[in-house]
Amino acid sequence: MASLNEPGTTVRAPRAPWLTLKRRETIEGWLFVSPTLIGFLIFFLGPLIAVVFYSLSEWNLLSQDTIFVGLANYEDALTQNPDFWQVIRNSVIFAAGLVPMNMALALALAMALARPFRGVVFFRTIFFAPVVTSAVAWAIVWKFLLQGDAGAVNQMLATVGIDGPNWLREPNWAMAAVIVTRVLKMVGLNMILYIAALQSIPRDYEEAARLEGASEWQIFRMVIWPLLAPTTLIIMVITTIGSFKVFDHIYLMTGGGPENGTLVLAFYIYQQAFEFFEIGYASALAMIMFVIVLALTVVQLILRQKGST
Amino acid sequence: MALSQPQLATVKRICWMLSLVVVAIPFLFPFLWMISSGFKGPTEIFGEPSLIPRTWRWQNFVEVFEYQPFARQYFNSIYIACAVTVLTLLLSSLAGYALARMRFAGAALLMLFLMSALMVPEEVTIVPNFFLMKWLGVMDTHVPLILLPVFGPHGVMATFLMRQYFVALPKELEDAGKMDGLSRAGIWWKIALPMSRPALAAVAIITFLFSWNLFLEPLVFISSLENFTLPLALSNFTDPYGAPLWHLQLAATSLAVVPILIVYLIAQRQIIESFAMSGVKG
């Protein structure tokens, strides 16, 4: 490109210039995206490809040697290591508890707060506040509140005569506690998305149904809910994928315990890679996570296609 | 006792408000309890619960800074978040503009290619990135904490947000700029960027918070105390046996959270809209 601007080149009979407008646009376009693209290749796509190779090898961190072991790491996870299936089970329970609770609460709050009334901004602000708060802070405070006897939650329960469990130290309660506190942290985001969707529904629809004599429930069931379907689908997929990525929340609240009862996939990957230095095994786990998230996304695309036809 | 129509409406309204208040408690209460406990001494914190501390122990907020280099850690978080935000704004608006406005060969394919990043969790690429950073010799520095958010899925999301905004902008002004002899870069910088302030603000807000709240990356890449960021520092207020020093931890957490909350309360409309625009997160 530089040579075109150089002065003193011999003047020839005019011919079609090499740098057509179209070519110029292509060069400029690629120049504009190149910083993003190069960084993306180095820090994202490269590692993504590397993790495939890592997952097929055994690493010795001391000698820095790698041996190709084929699918042994996957075999190890799927058939040998009992932890793996417990981790998958935990992740599924976490998602199965979190997603419906989050979505139902988000929808209920959005229905309550979509229309203006005095105090609506106040409530929206409160329900959204945990979203802007760091997960670490949220987890620390809830861990504090949910301690055995000394925790504020149990002390309050005691005043009404309920003997609360040691929430984070008993396997079933610990899972329930991390799910509920995670819902409280993130529900505001889905609430906002639902509010935006609700506000885009023309009021005439509702009015017309009311004139026809439909009850509030019928209006919701027959008019609003179907119109919310695309939003519901997107929220469902985002929330499900998000639930498989949860790490900091659980790392800080329970440390994966008790008895690995809250050890979820993202945490397990971290543990294997950076605490036990099982790089090959951790990479196989990362690939499994990738496949799960990919499958969820594909399911979403299929559902969306079905919904639109 | 029969209630008249307006009376019934009032009763309904009051019940309605009350139920909203009840639901709001678990959202609001942790913040209040965090701040109040940050003022309590190590013994009072486990005593009879009360929202107002019996003795206000301001000393906590001094000890927080003595226990670890908390001021330094605080500063780290601020400057890293600023760097990530500025870089993300620049790169995402540049790439987003090209993807929105320029018809160049390969653009559609590139979009698809970048979009695939949105569904890959950070946990999947963290292990190879660990070795990459080691190889680059930037372990225990802030370089990974700046580069990874800028070039990872979050950066791609920002690029798409910018692209969506540019696509919807009217073209006339840019055409006028072209007539006046502005280059592409000139049009981007002088015309398109000033017109896209709402999108830039949204990207800035969610990016700042994204970096500010990052935990996994600091945990993996940072090892020395003076290089910690806030989330790491907060998790580090423990006694030698690993048990949390709650009064210090909660005082420090308050110091980290309250400024963000104040900004949020002032600009809540703008901030909530930014998240609604991004549509993805968490």
CATH class membership of the domain at 82-276 in chain A: Mainly Alpha
Give the class-level CATH name of chain B. Mainly Alpha
Number of strands of chain B: 0
Q: Tell me the greatest interface.
A: A-B, 87 and 89 residues
Helix content of chain B: over 70%
* pLDDT averaged over residues of chain A: 87
Gap between N and C termini of chain B: 51 Å
CATH topology of the domain at 82-276 in chain A: MetI-like fold
Helix run count of chain B: 14
Estimated structural class of chain B:
mainly alpha
Strand arrangement across the biggest beta sheet of chain A: 1-2
Low-pLDDT runs of chain A: 1-5
**Content-based structural category of chain A:** mainly alpha
The oligomeric state is heterodimer
Following the backbone from N to C, one meets helices and strands of chain B in this order, namely HHHHHHHHHHHHHH
Q: What average pLDDT do the residues of chain B reach?
A: 89
Number of strands of chain A: 2
Q: Write down the overall geometry of chain B.
A: flat
